[in-house]
Amino acid sequence: MNLAEIQQRMYAAVVQPLAPGEHMQPRTRDGKSMHDAASEFIKPNDRLSSFERLEIYNRQYWFRVLGALDEDFSGLRAILGVRKFEVLCKAYLLDCPSESFTLRNLGARLESWLLDHPQWIRPRTGLALDMVRLEWAEIEAFDAAAEPAWDPQDALGADPDPQFRLQPYVQLLKLRYPVHDLLLAVRQEHSDGAMASNAISARKRARVRKAARQKPQSVFLAVHRMDYSVYFKRLDAEAFAFLNSLRDGNSLSAAVITAFTGRDVPESKILGTVQSWFESWSTLGWFCRPQSVDAKSISS
Amino acid sequence: MPANRFNGFSDFGIGIGLRVPHYQHILSEKPVVDWFEIISENYMVDGGRPLHVLDQILEQYRVVQHGVSMYFGSPEAPDREHLKRLKALVKRTKTPWLTDHLCWGSVDGRYTHDLLPMPYTFEAARVTAQKIREVRDFLEVPIAVENVSSYAEFHVSEMNEWEFLTEVVESADCGILLDVNNIYVSSRNHTFNPHDYVASIPAERVAQIHIAGHSKFEKYILDTHDHPVIDPVWKLYAHAIELAGPTATLLEWDDSIPSFEDVHNEALKANQFTAEMRVAS
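Above: the input entities. Below: the structure tokens describing the complete assembly.
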């Protein structure tokens, strides 16, 4: 048996889901006895059979990857409940095993996978999908790049209609449920109760039920970073459209048109609204310094 | 021989792993520590807190990078994105040498995120050494490979673990990160004398030493990095430095992490063995 064959066989066994009681499955995926399969390439010793030695790695794999998803998607877990969440994670990992050198990216395909497999999140499909989008956006916002921030004092050059670029870490989400409130509440309860008491679990379930009962609405959210911590900021529809337009690379005037066309905002108020947005968002550091300004400061 | 070409001719003392629960203490108290080892993958990101903290650490301390996912023993070519990010981090930290494990963990681009044991064959040694050379040529930094703890052995093995380690490092002309806790764990799981292991490897290639604690189960020992170092592992450490000289040493503590002082004090116990060795010589 050569190196590639050993690794293929061991990989197949290691990523096969555990049987009840956290044991290795008695059969391989193609129906062969796992005891026989393990014996073919792994030596037993005086304490452990080939099967038991392979089982150590099988357990470690599942404990590690399920632990990583559990840490990254605590909001989804609260919505589904621990058991249903674990079953979902196992199904997801079978379809979407890690293709990245880092566990950080393990949940990258969860939203798209759930869109194709909504049976795992029914009946709270919309709520669960929104939560997954929020939790993934949080991961991205945490360690995405930050470019030098634009300062209102920076000269904008001669361009009468400049392009403002958003910081890469600013994530814009259009949601149907205020899942950010639910996520914060779930985390608060978790940190309040170091021990997982029945009362806390019951409170968490009640919060989820309450959130799920809400009528779907449009929730516009920026997931952003300040002083290296991630925050949520609710936006109104116009602001969300404006920021999305800038993110798409449009000029300031094009973004204004996108934001206000068809909206019930008097023209006289548009300038003041945009000015106040800029004041607030530039304080938060959401805009990157225009490249022309960077070049100027480097040359000086 | 503490300084050699496998650790960039550096002369590092006793370090500990940089871990999130200790960030605040280190940044505010600025304790005296010889050096920190970082898990490379935790900092191969584009921005945010991980890099912010790392930059502050780099202002005060020497840092060595330790990876967990290069998988030198997986036959597929290294992932280009992975290599590019790793090289960017190498430039940032100016790590004098870089370590990862003598193991495999991925097949056809799918990752287990585990350190899986190698079959000790000449084919596996050749494939592994070739990959180490490729990675070193790309990163332009000395590489040392770490022996892993293992729980399984393969029928096809043509040599024992220390012979395999020697075959790989000599073929790749790279260094060894000698983990004496891993040697102890494997020696119990596979029934061999751990001192034979230490005595048999090419001591002149030891770039760094790892020490750690582990967990004992009924039928095997698991490398959990969640306990102090036990006496038999310290004895192995003493044996290793007797042969390799007082080498850069690092304590790993990754789970149930105690206070910074507790971890650092545990690591500093290594000094007594270095002192005893100096007195003896």
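Note for the figure: The longest strand of chain B covers residues 110-116.
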